[in-house]
Amino acid sequence: MFEQGDGTKLNDEVIKKLCDKFGIELSTDKVAIDIPQVAAPLRVFETEKGFCPNPSCPSHVAYEVEGRKFLKPDRRVQDPVGGKFCAICGEVLEKRCPNCGAALHDGAVCSICGVSYIALV
Length: 121
Description:
The protein is low in regular secondary structure.
């Protein structure tokens, strides 16, 4: 659950059990840590950027996996500024997975429910 973004299950008790399991000494002393400033990753999409649900939009990248056809939306082209309409075909953009409502990621299939973002007709 933690790897899928649900950090609510990571509490002091769970951390203690993990440290015991892996032989890590858990210190209760507070230590000041100098965290260096780094640039943001290049492939991160803000959740407000949408994708075009129109399967005919020319900005989609078509590919095939084990005989199944998919369309991967190119959100950088379709929604360069976080708008409401596709910059290529004018369709209203989807801002979340149309099946389960999960946040979008850079792919063609929702990582939560496994349904394609764009329905092929």
